[in-house]
Backbone:
């Protein structure tokens, strides 16, 4: 309870309250500050609301019992996410340093936590920016009509399409062949695919420019990158609700299945999603709040950010599923029409004989009278449920499902530009926090000479990161991104978060933190915060961490590949099914951070 | 005389019936989907339409098979279904019992496909010749890929942003330098004031060197 490890010299390493007040008045030091509170809030919102809110949360919600999933999600949001958020805000605002500086001040032996945060931020930034490069590619390609992913190239004699495109679909072909030129396994590098290199150049240049002077420049950029996604989501909501079949999707998303609440995996997934959604343990939030004035009410900020994140997730999920519902209905109608044509052709019936309304009856009648012929016709089963559940998370959602849905809307280039620009803003605003979590610790660790200006540090970091991220520009880049996504962020973040809690509660001292909060905001945190900091949050994180490690240790490592030479037909579920049996490297869905 | 003509007609139609049958080796099956193509504006398929079709095919054969004048009667149709599908064969103008080869028929149809389609307000998908695959239109590809253009615009904007940023930094530094040389006298007095008041509270720990020492 009151177990505090001995920590001599703590008072010498950190400024005391009088010092803080004095520094505030004199504006001493060359530490950056926020121009206004709005910039700070928008930066934090942008950091927390990222690609995962659009393409991970809706999938989790739908697959774990729809509306019922909101219960564990919201509970864990409040019990796990909010206390950790306030902890990071308070510690940053009090000690006024970036992540390495903060942990080093608390105890030099804890510097490792800061370094771990920095490394995780760096690794995640590398593959996250690759995702942004892919989104940029789609964005660049949206300025034409018809959109390039509506067409297949022709085969040699011009009578059909290339087999890879014919068997999967135009959107699959565009993503896996034109955009990525994927090889069939991660071991097969295949060389560099230069369109991705070009987009990586663009992506890193944008980040470098926006973050040139640290939050001085990124603070201006967030006015666009943090607000625009909401505007676009609202536009898409209106557009989505007017499309045919949208309500099918929304119903599918929110139909509650209360039995799912009894499954452990639901709670684990909810906990993990909350943890990653809040971008805790990346170090960026600590940095951001260290630029705040000392008496900023960080408790209010934490509560507000929690509420905003929760509501945005639900909002984005609704919008996503209106579009998914529309696409599924389209595919269902096409499937039925296709079957009708097949049957009419086979039995030489008049076109009006079978329509969508009497399809079932006609099918049963024909099947009972001529079962052999019907069997030979290869009638596909049209199941709405399958269409609604296919390819609906990760890159599959954005580049396959949504790209296809957009091609069916009137005025598709406009919607495509809007959608991919929104994804760009979501990604870039998260990346600001990432880069902050990398550059500031690098400065604190004196990796760069002290006299280098901020611009030089940013520029060098971005350039070096670009060179390293050329790994993802290979033809096997997709598998590398998935590999990083599954292992770079998941377990390290949970571990760092757990140690952060232990460090603050038992090394820094929870009483000291309470006193600090009383000094900064005027009152001590209530009993809710005390209990969650001491017991609830650490236990939740520990449970999730242990479960993940147990599952990971038991799993065989395999991964899904896109293999045009595979025997079965390529499915639309983003990735083909057959894997060469000797290669087994994998991704366990639960552990995904972003995808 | 009349009987002879009558016999001849019977004979030729019988012969024609023999020549045209489903799965004939030199014949093709045609499938027409009016409702799919035209929806509510679809016309009814009747004898007149069939006559029109046969004359279109005769036109195609005349144009592409050199030298021979095909007539409507040379196109023999059989096995019509309510689907609107039927088989046809093409007989030679010189010898009514001889069929034109499959390859020639296919070539003629392929070359006149668009004319035949537009005559009936249909497309390759809705007027199908089973066995003759339509040559698909190649996807439109502009000379400069549009994405390169957009990329160029974005990179240009970024470069402009960097230049503007550098220039503004230099301008700001210059302005600060000017202010410093101008305002040195007034600054000196205020600085002295703060130092004086600071001396009153002795032993304030100066944190500005803290980082260096703690390394």
Residues:
């Amino acid at each position: 309870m009151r177990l505090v490890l001995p920590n001599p010299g703590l008072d010498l390493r950190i400024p005391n309250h009088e010092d803080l007040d004095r520094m505030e008045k004199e504006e001493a030091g060359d530490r950056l500050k926020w121009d206004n509170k709005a910039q700070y809030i928008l930066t934090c919102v942008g950091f927390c609301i990222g690609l995962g809110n659009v393409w991970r949360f809706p999938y989790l919600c739908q697959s774990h019992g729809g509306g019922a999933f909101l219960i564990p999600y919201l509970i864990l949001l409040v019990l796990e996410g909010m206390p950790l958020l306030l902890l990071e805000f308070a510690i940053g605002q009090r000690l006024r340093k970036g992540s390495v500086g903060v942990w080093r001040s608390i105890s030099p032996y804890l510097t490792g936590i800061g370094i771990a945060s920095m490394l995780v931020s760096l690794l995640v930034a590398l593959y996250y920016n690759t995702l942004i490069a892919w989104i940029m590619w789609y964005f660049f390609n949206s300025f034409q009509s018809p959109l390039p992913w509506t067409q297949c190239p022709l085969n040699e004699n011009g009578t059909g399409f290339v087999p890879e495109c014919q068997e999967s679909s135009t959107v699959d072909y565009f993503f896996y062949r034109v955009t990525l030129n994927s090889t069939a396994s991660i071991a097969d590098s295949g060389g560099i695919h230069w369109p991705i290199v070009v987009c990586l150049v663009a992506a890193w240049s944008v980040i470098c420019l926006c973050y040139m002077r640290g939050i001085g420049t990124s603070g201006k950029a967030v006015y666009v990158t943090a607000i625009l996604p909401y505007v676009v989501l609202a536009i898409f909501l209106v557009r989505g609700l007017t499309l045919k079949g949208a309500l099918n999707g929304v119903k599918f998303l929110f139909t509650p299945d209360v039995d799912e609440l009894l499954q452990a995996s639901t709670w684990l997934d909810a906990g993990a999603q909350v943890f990653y959604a809040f971008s805790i343990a990346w170090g960026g939030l600590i940095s951001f709040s260290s630029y705040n004035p000392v008496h900023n009410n960080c408790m209010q900020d934490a509560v507000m950010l929690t509420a905003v994140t929760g509501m945005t997730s639900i909002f984005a999920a609704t919008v996503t599923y209106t579009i998914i519902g529309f696409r599924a209905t389209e595919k269902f109608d096409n499937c039925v029409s296709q079957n009708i044509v097949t049957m009419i052709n086979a039995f030489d019936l008049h076109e009006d004989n079978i329509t969508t309304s009497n399809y079932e009856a006609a099918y049963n009648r024909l099947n009972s009278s001529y079962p052999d012929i019907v069997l030979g016709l290869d009638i596909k089963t049209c199941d709405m449920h399958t269409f609604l559940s296919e390819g609906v998370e990760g890159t599959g959602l954005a580049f396959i499902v949504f790209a296809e849905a957009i091609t069916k809307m009137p005025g598709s280039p406009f919607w495509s530009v809007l959608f991919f620009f929104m994804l760009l803003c979501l990604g870039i605003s998260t990346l600001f926090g990432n880069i902050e979590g990398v550059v500031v610790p690098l400065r604190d660790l004196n990796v760069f000479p002290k006299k280098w200006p901020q611009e030089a540090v940013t520029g060098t970091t971005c350039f070096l990161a670009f060179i390293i991220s050329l790994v993802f520009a290979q033809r096997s880049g997709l598998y590398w991104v998935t590999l990083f996504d599954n292992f770079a962020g998941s377990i390290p973040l949970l571990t760092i978060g757990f140690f952060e809690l232990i460090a603050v509660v038992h090394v820094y001292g929870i009483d000291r933190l309470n006193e600090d909060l009383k000094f900064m905001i005027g009152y001590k945190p209530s009993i809710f915060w005390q209990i969650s900091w001491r017991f609830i949050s650490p236990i939740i994180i520990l449970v999730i961490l242990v479960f993940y490690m147990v599952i990971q240790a038991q799993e065989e490592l395999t991964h899904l590949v896109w293999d045009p030479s595979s025997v079965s037909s390529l499915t639309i579920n983003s990735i083909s099914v057959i894997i060469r049996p000797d290669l087994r490297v994998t991704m366990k869905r639960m552990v995904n951070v972003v995808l | 005389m009349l009987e002879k003509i009558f016999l001849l007609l019977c004979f030729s139609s019988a012969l024609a019936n023999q020549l045209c049958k489903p799965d004939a080796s030199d014949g093709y099956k045609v499938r027409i989907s009016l409702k799919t193509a035209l929806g509510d504006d679809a016309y009814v398929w009747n004898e007149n339409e069939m006559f029109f079709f046969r004359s279109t095919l005769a036109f195609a054969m005349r144009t592409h098979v050199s030298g021979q004048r095909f007539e409507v009667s040379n196109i023999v149709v059989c096995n019509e279904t309510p689907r609107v599908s039927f088989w046809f064969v093409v007989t030679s103008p010189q010898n009514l019992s001889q069929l034109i080869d499959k390859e020639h028929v296919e070539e003629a149809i392929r070359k006149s496909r668009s004319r035949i389609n537009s005559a009936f307000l249909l497309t390759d998908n809705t007027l199908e010749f089973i066995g003759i695959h339509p040559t698909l239109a190649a996807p439109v590809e502009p000379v400069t890929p549009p994405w390169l253009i957009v990329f160029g615009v974005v990179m240009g904007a970024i470069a402009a942003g960097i230049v503007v940023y550098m220039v503004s930094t230099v301008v700001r530094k210059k302005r600060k330098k000017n202010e410093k040389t101008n305002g040195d006298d007034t600054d000196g007095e205020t600085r002295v004031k703060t130092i004086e008041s600071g001396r009153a509270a002795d032993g304030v720990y100066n944190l500005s060197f803290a980082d260096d020492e703690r390394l």
Q: What stands out?
A: Residues 187-201 of chain B have pLDDT under 50 and may be disordered. Residues 169 and 204 of chain B are 35 Å apart (CA to CA). The longest strand of chain B covers residues 75-81. The domain at 13-130 of chain B is CATH 3.30.70 (Alpha-Beta Plaits).
